[in-house]
Amino acid sequence: MENKAHALAAGIFVLVVAAMLVALAAWLTRDTGQHDPYEISTRDSITGLQPQAAVRYRGVEVGKVDSIEFDPKGQGTVLIALEVDRQAPVTKGTFATLGYQGVTGLAYIQLDDDGKSTARPEWSAGQPPRIPMRPGLLDKLTVKGEQLIDRADAALASINTLLGDANQKRVATALDNFGSAAAQVTELSHTLNGTVRTKVDPTLVQAKQTLQSVQSTSDEFGRTAKRVNAADGPIDRLAQGTQSLSHAADSFNAATLPRIDRATEETSRAVRTLGRTVTSISDNPQSLIYGNGILPPGPGEQGFVPPGGTK
C-alpha cells in the first residue's frame, strides 16, 4: 500500500513539472505584439510551405502563416492567410515571393516592396487586404530551365538533321572535291614554276644587262664630272677667263670713263657758247658787219629819233 502511494506521488510530481515546462515555454514564446491579417491568393505551386511558416519582410521576421487552403472563389487557387506585425511597413506596393531555407526544402513567405506607394492596404468588403504573389527565384529558374531544355531539344534536332545520311554524303562529296581542287592547284603551281623559268629568266637576263649598261653610263658621267671639276680643267679655265674679263672692265672704267666725261663736258660748253653766238647774231645781224657796238634806240625806245625828225 505504501509503494502505491509513492508511485502516485511521483506521477503527480512528473505531471506538475511537465505542466510547468509547457507553461514556461508558452510564456517565453508568447507574442505580445499586435498583428493584422492579410491574404495571398495564387495559382502557382507553394511546395514546402506549411502553416506556422515564417513571414519575413526583406529578411526580417514579421509574422507567420496562419492557414493554407483552397480559395472557394477561384478554381485551383490557393489561399494563404497571414498574420503580420502591425509595425511592419506593409503598403499597397508590397508583394510576396516564396523563399526556401537552405537545403531543407522548407519554404517561407518573403515580403518586399516596389516603392510605388506608401499607403497601407485597406479592408475590402469585409475581407482582409490581399498581397499579390510573384514568382520566386526557384520558379524563374524552373521556367528558364524549361525554355533552355526546349532550345536544347531544337538544337539537337537541327544537329541530327545536319548529320543525316544525305548531308554526310554531301560533306564527303565536298571533301573529295576539295581534295581534287588541291591536286589541281598543286599541278597548276608546277606549271607556273616552269613558265616562270622559261619566260621570266630571259627577261631577268635582259634586265640585268640593261642595269649593267646604265651602271657603265653612270660611271662615264662620273669620270667626265671629275675631269670637268679637276684642277686646271675647263671650269677652272672658264673662271680664270671670267676674272680676266672683269679686271679689263675695271681698268676700262678707271682710265677711259673719266676722259670721256671731260670731253663730254667741254663739248657741252662749246655747244652752249655756239648757241649764245647764234642767238646774238639772230638778234643783231648787223654785228657781222659793224661788230658788237652800241645799237641806236629803236622806235618806242628812249632816245629814238625818227628819220628827218628832231629830238
Helix/strand/pairing category: alpha+beta
The overall pLDDT, averaged over residues, is 77
Provide the β-strand percentage band. Answer: 5-15%
Strand order of the largest sheet: 1-4-3-2-6-5
Given the structure, what is the number of helices?
A: 5
Q: What would you note in describing this structure?
A:
With 311 residues, the chain is of the alpha+beta class. The protein has a domain at 34-134. It contains five helices and six strands; from the N terminus they run αββββββαααα. The protein has helices at residues 2-28, 137-162, 165-229, 234-283, 287-290; strands at residues 35-42, 54-57, 60-70, 78-85, 94-100, 107-113. A six-stranded mixed sheet has the order 1-4-3-2-6-5, with no helix packed on it. The chain is elongated. The mean pLDDT is 77.
Please describe the structure with a list of short key phrases separated by commas or semicolons.
311 residues; alpha+beta; six-stranded mixed β-sheet; 6 strands; 14% strand
Helix and strand arrangement:
Layout: H1 2-28, E1 35-42, E2 54-57, E3 60-70, E4 78-85, E5 94-100, E6 107-113, H2 137-162, H3 165-229, H4 234-283, H5 287-290
Parallel strand pairs: 2-6
Antiparallel strand pairs: 1-4, 2-3, 3-4, 5-6
In short:
With 311 residues, the protein is of the alpha+beta class. Helices cover 55% and strands 14% of the residues. The radius of gyration is 69 Å and the shape is elongated.
